[in-house]
Structure formats: structure tokens, C-alpha cells
Amino acid sequence: MSTPSQYRSDAVDPAAVPQRKLYTGATMPAIGLGTFGSDHVTPAQVAEAVMGAAATGYRHFDCASVYGNEAAVGASLEAIQRGGVKRADLWVTSKVWNDKHDDVIGSCRKSLADLRLDYLDLYLVHWPFPNFHVPGCDVSSRSADAKPYIHENYMKTWRQMEELIDLGLVRHIGTSNMTIPKLKLVLRDARIKPAVNEMELHPHFQQPELFKYVVENGIQPIGYCPLGSPGRPERDRTPEDTSPTEDPVILDIARRHGVHPAVICVKWAVQRGQSPIPFSINNYLANLQGAVSDPLSEEEMQAITKLDRNCRLIKGQVFLWKDGQSWEALWDIAGEITAP
Ligand SMILES: NC(=O)c1ccc[n+]([C@@H]2O[C@H](COP(=O)([O-])OP(=O)(O)OC[C@H]3O[C@@H](n4cnc5c(N)ncnc54)[C@H](OP(=O)(O)O)[C@@H]3O)[C@@H](O)[C@H]2O)c1
Asked: Are 103 and 130 in contact (CB under 8 A)?
């Protein structure tokens, strides 16, 4: 793999990228590159995109052990630093997978080794359920020993997350795929509170209540599937799903700005205050440029706010713990943690 030029002529100056200030005082680039290659993009292609994205000005990379490509991404991160980007100017996130809730420190050390780093900027508990499923499995598959959310167990995992900070292996810890009732308990019991919550956020799934809750509690929302994940696996599609990049209002705004509808989703996310992490191997430059130029007007922002359809795309069915349950059980929609 070649070392990227840090100075592509069409690159965005990383200093021009908006930053989010976390409660620790640290700053995180307001847009990052997702690295989940789903079922169709190889680790080598993702690694190449990480190199290319760094050359165009990205400094924030959203990784996870379960994406199965951290070793390839790590080779790119090493090359990016050899090419002159300082470690302190990178923001690298990784996540502990569901089968490692009892071995958070071991899992983090493995990600650090694969990513060729001696610390992570952010480490997340990927899902609040310790329910393993084989990557690529069918949506109807269930783990025989699947469990509901058990707060006591989550806190055992969280204590290990806190220890990672004490050990200097990670700078910030955070949650992902959480709900307000679960976060309330974590905020009550944590010694070190989450700095971010990673959650699905796009114009058709704006999660206004959870968004407001995390912001009011000093937690930065990171938005996954910010474009409505057009490349997600078949198993994550249902007939009710809608696509923000095909929404007539987004198409109209995109026409006016002369960009792809996906770029409008990025602009909206950055201006709203979350940190989108769009995945891309072909369009990452357009997304970064969209985040720093030609902002949406107040009217356009309001028009997009009205598009919310409460359309969750990543429903998480494989993490259900009982036969006959519907995916809504994972998301505490009645306002309290779903009974076991
Ligand atoms: N915490 C969690 O549980 C969780 C769950 C899901 C995802 N994530 C993270 O969030 C990231 C993003 O989510 P995602 O990958 O599912 O979906 P996404 O970012 O909403 O969509 C990615 C898709 O959009 C296309 N695309 C990107 N920019 C485009 C543009 N400007 N014009 C046209 N097409 C464009 C990409 O194609 P090209 O490659 O061809 O550009 C790719 O197929 C993941 O990679 C992962 O890091 C986290």
C-alpha cells in the first residue's frame, strides 16, 4: 500500500472541520469515516478508503473489532502517521463486541494491537446485550444463551471500561445502541460517565427524545447510518424501511445545492449537532466537503426536521433473548427497560 500524500490538491484542511467539545474538554472532529464494510466491501478496500480519506482531510475513524478489518485498518493508520499526521491529530474509536463483555481489557488490547496504536481516543460498548451472533447470520437466528439487559452485568462491563481509562489505554469511554431508561441507570452508577452515545441517526430516524436527553446530559451523540445505510446487508432490510436519500424533500434540496442527496444528510447531521460517521469507499471526499461548505439554510434545516418517520433501520433482531419477541423489545419503547 502506498503512503498517501497528506496534501491532495482537493483536500479539506482538517483545521476547517468543525469539532465537538466533549465534557472532558477534548475535541473530536464532527464527522468521521465509518469502517463497517458490511457484506460486500473487503478489509483491503476499507483500509484503502481509510488511507484515501486521511489524504482528503479526515482525522476521525469509527472502527470495531466485529467489523473484522481492524488489522487492515491498522496498517493504514500506521502509514498515515508515517506520512506525517501526528497521532494526537487522529481520533480513533473502537468497540467491544457482545461476546467480550467479560473481557473488555483483553478485547481492547487486541484492537490496539490490530490498529497499531498504544491508546484509543474512544472505546464503546457496542451493544448493551452480551448476545453473540455469528457475523453474517440470518436475521431469524438467536443465540441459545441470549440474555436481556441486566444492569448489574452491564455495570460489570462498564467498570472494566473505566479501568481502561485508569490504565491509560483509552482516553474516553462511551455507549452505543442505548435507550433513555438504560442510560439513566448508567449515569446514576458510573464513576466515569460516557462521553458519547453512538446511535442510529438520519433524516428518517432523528430520535429527538434520546438526542435531547444525551445532549442535556453532556454526552455527544455520534450518528451511525447517517445516509440511511443504502449498502446494508439484506438481513437488515424490511419492507417498511424508507430511504432518506430518496426522499423528495432531500432530493429537492440536493438539486439546489448541486450535490448528491447523501451529502445533504451529512450537512444536516453536522449542523444539527451530532457527529455523523458515513461509510464510503467512493464518495468520502464529497461528504467531508459537504461538512465544511455551503451550509443548509434555516428553512432547509426545518424542512428536514419535518421528515422524521421514526424509521429505525438497524433493528437488532439477532440480539433478542426470547422466542416470539419483536425487535421493539430491544429499544424500551414503553419508556422503561423491557422486562426479562
Ligand atoms: N454502533 C453501531 O452499532 C453501528 C451500527 C451500524 C453502523 N455503525 C457505524 O456507522 C458507519 C456508517 O453506517 P453505514 O455504513 O451502515 O451506512 P451509511 O454511512 O449511512 O451509508 C453508507 C453507504 O452510502 C454510500 N455513500 C456514502 N457517501 C455517499 C455519497 N456522497 N454519495 C452516494 N453514496 C454515498 C456508500 O457507498 P460508497 O462506498 O460507494 O461511497 C455506502 O454504500 C458504519 O460504517 C459503522 O462504522 C455503527
From this structure: no
C-alpha 139/C-alpha 93 separation (Å) is: 27
Give distance in angstroms: CA of 229 to centre of ligand 1.
5
Query: What was the pLDDT predicted at 2?
Result: 40
Look at ligand 1, atom 43, and give the residue with the nearest C-alpha: 231
Q: 85-116 pLDDT, tens per residue?
A: 999 999 999 999 999 999 999 999 999 999 99
Per-residue pLDDT of 251-290, as tens digits, reads 999 999 999 999 999 999 999 999 999 999 999 999 999 9
Q: Which residue has the cell 494526537?
A: 88
Could you tell me if 161 and 104 are in contact, meaning their C-beta atoms sit under 8 angstroms apart? yes
Say what angle helices 180-189 and 151-166 make with each other, to 10 degrees.
Answer: 50
Cα 306 to middle of ligand 1, angstroms = 23
Rounded Cα–Cα distance for residues 62 and 73 (Å):
10
67 catalytic? Reply is yes
Rg (CA), the chain: 19
Output the pTM of the full model.
0.97
Set 7, 23, 58, 67: catalytic member: 67
Give the separation between CA 332 and CA 180, rounded to whole angstroms.
8
* Cβ neighbour number for residue 103 with a 10 Å cutoff: 14
DSSP secondary structure, 186-243, as one string: HHHH-SS--SEEEEE-BTTB--HHHHHHHHHTT-EEEEESTT--TT--GGG--TT---
279 CA: nearest ligand 1 atom: 19
The C-alpha angle 235, 228, 33, rounded to 5 degrees, equals: 100
Beta pairing partners, 221: 197
